[in-house]
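hey so i finally got around to running the thing on that chain from the lab meeting. sorry it took forever, my laptop kept dying and i had to restart like 3 times. anyway pasting the input first so we r on the same page abt which one it is
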Amino acid sequence: MRILNYVVTSNHIHLLVVDNGPDVISKSLQLIAGRTAQEFNQRKERKGAFWEDRYHATAVERNEHLIRCLVYIDLNMVRAGVVNHPSEWEMSGFNEIQNPPKRYCVIDMSALRNFCGFQDYEQFAEQHRQWIQEAISNGKDQRESCWTESIAVGSIGFVEETKSKLGIMGMGRRIEEQETGLCVLREEFEPYSGVFNPENERLSLNNSYIWDVSPAD
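ok and heres what got predicted. didnt touch it at all, straight out
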């Protein structure tokens, strides 16, 4: 699984990733959830799951939709009112994109540049800073439910194709056009549950959708 962007908050994480084959995302998140719970339980001398709920995946079309999702993740803690700029939040992809570490990189920078249409790192980093500044200056740092409550986001063609690939799982899912050129495949919103039960004790493959190699948040 290739990571294109991320942010770690006090109670959840956002990941922009690309899979490299069937079940890669679901199995990777199962591994992350298991390792996290194991480490935390050892330190706190407790048992049980660390994450309250299973993950939600949204397929994102490449091109401008991917860039919008990238910026949306960067601005997570700005929207929460914790910081004024993403550079002020250490556990985020913004700082890694702007100042790539020499070792132990989380983000696949080459893949990210290619998906965003850039070959030169400096040019991409500069454009990335401009995207963030424009979003903050224009008040576009507000919450957009399409990234967290949809099955797919992109053009009408991409969303229709995604729904078709889901087969029977796509039945009953509705396509909405939110603005010019932006469509979503919507699913019914289910609020987070405070009750732990066997269904959310661990991540399940039944919660995954296969997107070939499309990025997903």
